């Protein structure tokens, strides 16, 4: 019988129908027992033994939580017919009619759609035959036909109801289980009762009451019972099984954010509202995973009252979106600050260039030749500052778009450093041996890196600055050292990020915050690296590049250790 096309309806549907069947059969048995006892008809009382046994079987199925009803139904029909035949009393067929019809119609709930017609034919035949098993008059035959038609119609009707019920339940479960957002079925009935008691005690403003009595939120939270959760909820909480999500909430474990998110839900019950949306920030009390989420609470309305036994709570995790929003806001703030800094840093040298140029143009011989040379040197120096800023911006833009080009040739790091110092007129010592191997790099990009490192040392480093060129394994390194204070440990990983600026030195113009970023990117593009360290006495920025295959230095005319370029005129 179990494999007779049985379409296993949802477990709760079977249990509900089994309860209904048992109740109807039990009611019929009691009614006929009472009728037989009242009329002193012991034959009728005896005839109820079979239906009573079958009813007991159904009750035992409920108690033992079994779900195979169809075999019991057919057993019941056969027991009733055989019993009545054995008693040999035609009147007992009337007593068996009600349980037979009830059992047959109820069986339609448990038959697959394609087996409904054969079931109706076979069971109707059984009822009709049992009715005619005794000598029957024409009226009784007509009565048997009508009963058989009633069984067939009732069976077909209940079979259709069962299929519709099953399809709706399956659709609901499918939508619930496979929803892309976290869905929870929760029972708020105890919360509703607790809130009603508060109202009866004279509480008028629940929000104010909960604000004063902080512990009430967690007490009410403990009355909420999670009855089901979908797979998305399991994934959200990262729990191994769904069972760990079910049961009463632990109010003491809820984060402050989760407690705050419960208050609008309690207010919805208090104000008889079907739905409410709020934000949740913090862990859910089930796992220790902090999240930011949008929470939607919804309770169905049944007969003009909220059904708090089947509340649906949807939790949409928006942690990633909020992180992106914060990053976007920070990027916008950084860009705004960057534009302001670039404008300021460009305006400072350009103001000097424009002002001095106008003075020279309108001088009419009032400046001496030495004064003119000093002013022209200042224009050149300020122009180099503008060039440095523009170079960094162009490199940053080209790197983002992938349009940065390099040439590769042997480069003498000490020589390129000397060229940079010579162009700015700085007195900074360069320490290098005669036999330092050249590196394979782009000389223009190397000078840009050295210029940025020296500018960074002047802006943020100590007063004593030096450049050291040496060999380390298969690489040649250029170190820019100063005796400034070390960076805090938490800032060492961020100094190479775009638009980062360390604390500003008084009297020195602001930095765009791209120099170190661009320098490291250029070093990486040339197969090297740029790092920061502090050896306890000096800050050290190290540019390391691979040696060229030819170890002979290309026409270097650089003095040995201790070389110093002419001092730049000190500005007042």
Q: List how many beta strands DSSP finds.
A: 15
Lateral strand order in the biggest sheet: 3-2-1-8-5-4
Quick one: biggest sheet? 6 strands, antiparallel
The helix fraction, in percent, is: 40-55%
**Beta-strand percent range:** 5-15%
Looking at the structure, what is the overall shape? elongated
Rg from alpha-carbon coordinates: 45 Å
* Uncertain parts: 1-10, 504-510, 550-572
End-to-end Cα distance, whole Å, is: 107 Å
What is the total domain count? 4
The assigned structural class equals alpha+beta
What integer is the average pLDDT?
Answer: 76
Helix count from the secondary structure assignment: 17
Can you describe this structure?
The protein is an alpha+beta fold and 572 residues long. The protein has four domains: 11-177, no CATH class; 182-317, Beta-Lactamase; 330-401, Helix Hairpins (Orthogonal Bundle); 409-546, Heat Shock Protein 90, CATH 3.30.565. It has 17 helices and 15 strands. It has helices at residues 11-38, 42-47, 49-64, 70-87, 92-107, 116-131, 138-177, 189-200, 206-212, 214-221, 231-237, 256-270, 319-361, 369-401, 413-424, 443-460, 515-525; strands spanning 182-187, 225-229, 247-248, 275-281, 292-298, 301-302, 305-306, 311-317, 409-411, 430-432, 439-441, 465-472, 475-482, 529-534, 539-546. The strands form four sheets. The protein has a six-stranded antiparallel beta sheet with strand order 3-2-1-8-5-4. A five-stranded mixed beta sheet has the order 10-12-13-15-14, with helices on one face. α1 (11-38) runs antiparallel to α5 (92-107) and α10 (214-221) crosses α12 (256-270). It is elongated and about 145 Å long.
């Amino acid at each position: 019988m179990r494999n007779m096309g049985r379409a296993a309806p949802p477990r709760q549907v079977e249990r509900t129908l089994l309860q209904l069947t048992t109740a109807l059969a039990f009611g019929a048995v009691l009614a006929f027992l009472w009728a037989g006892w009242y009329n002193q008809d012991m034959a009728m009382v005896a005839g109820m033994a079979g239906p009573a046994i079958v009813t007991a079987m159904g009750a035992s199925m409920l108690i033992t939580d079994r779900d195979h009803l169809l075999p019991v139904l057919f057993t019941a029909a056969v027991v009733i017919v055989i019993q009545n035949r054995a008693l040999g009393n035609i009147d007992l067929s009337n007593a068996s009619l009600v349980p037979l019809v009830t059992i047959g119609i109820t069986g339609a709930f448990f038959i697959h759609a394609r087996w409904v017609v054969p079931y109706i034919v076979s069971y109707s035949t059984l009822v009709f035959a049992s009715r005619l098993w005794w000598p029957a008059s024409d009226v009784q035959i007509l009565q048997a036909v009508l009963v058989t038609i009633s069984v067939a119609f009732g069976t077909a009707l209940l079979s259709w109801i069962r299929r519709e019920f099953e399809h709706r339940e399956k659709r609901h479960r499918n939508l619930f289980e496979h929803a892309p957002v976290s869905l929870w079925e929760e029972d708020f009935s105890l919360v509703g009762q607790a809130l009603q008691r508060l109202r009866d005690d004279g509480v008028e403003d629940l929000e104010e009451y909960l604000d004063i009595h902080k512990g009430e939120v967690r007490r009410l939270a403990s009355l909420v019972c999670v009855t089901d959760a979908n797979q998305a909820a399991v994934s959200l909480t990262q729990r191994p099984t769904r069972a760990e999500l079910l049961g009463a909430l632990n109010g003491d474990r809820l984060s402050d954010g989760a407690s705050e998110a419960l208050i609008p839900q309690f207010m919805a019950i208090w104000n008889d509202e079907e739905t409410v949306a709020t934000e949740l920030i913090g862990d859910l009390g089930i796992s220790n995973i902090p999240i930011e989420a949008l929470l939607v609470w919804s309770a169905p309305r049944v007969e003009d009252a909220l059904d708090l036994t089947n509340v649906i709570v949807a939790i949409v995790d928006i942690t990633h979106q909020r992180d992106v929003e914060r990053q976007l806001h920070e990027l916008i703030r950084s860009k705004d600050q960057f534009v302001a800094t670039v404008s300021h840093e460009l305006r400072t040298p350009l103001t000097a260039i424009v002002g001095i140029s106008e003075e020279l143009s309108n001088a009419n011989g009032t400046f001496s030749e030495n004064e003119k040379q000093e002013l022209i040197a200042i224009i050149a120096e300020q122009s180099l500052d503008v060039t440095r800023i523009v170079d960094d911006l162009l490199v940053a833009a080209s790197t983002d778009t992938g349009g940065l080009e390099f040439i590769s040739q042997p480069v003498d790091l000490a020589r390129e450093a000397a060229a940079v110092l010579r162009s700015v007129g700085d007195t900074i010592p360069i320490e290098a041996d005669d036999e330092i191997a050249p590196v394979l790099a782009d000389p223009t990009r190397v000078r840009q890196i050295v210029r940025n490192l020296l500018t960074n040392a002047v802006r943020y480093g100590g007063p004593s600055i030096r450049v050291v060129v040496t060999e380390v394994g298969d690489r040649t390194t250029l170190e820019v050292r100063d005796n400034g204070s070390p960076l805090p440990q938490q800032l060492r990983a961020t100094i190479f990020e775009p638009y980062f600026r360390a604390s500003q030195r008084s009297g020195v113009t602001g930095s765009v915050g791209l120099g170190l970023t661009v320098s490291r990117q250029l070093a990486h593009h040339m197969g090297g690296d740029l790092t920061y360290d502090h050896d306890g006495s000096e800050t050290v920025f190290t540019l390391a590049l691979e040696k060229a295959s030819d170890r002979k230095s290309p026409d270097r005319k650089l003095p040995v250790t201790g070389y110093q370029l002419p001092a730049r005129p000190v500005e007042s």
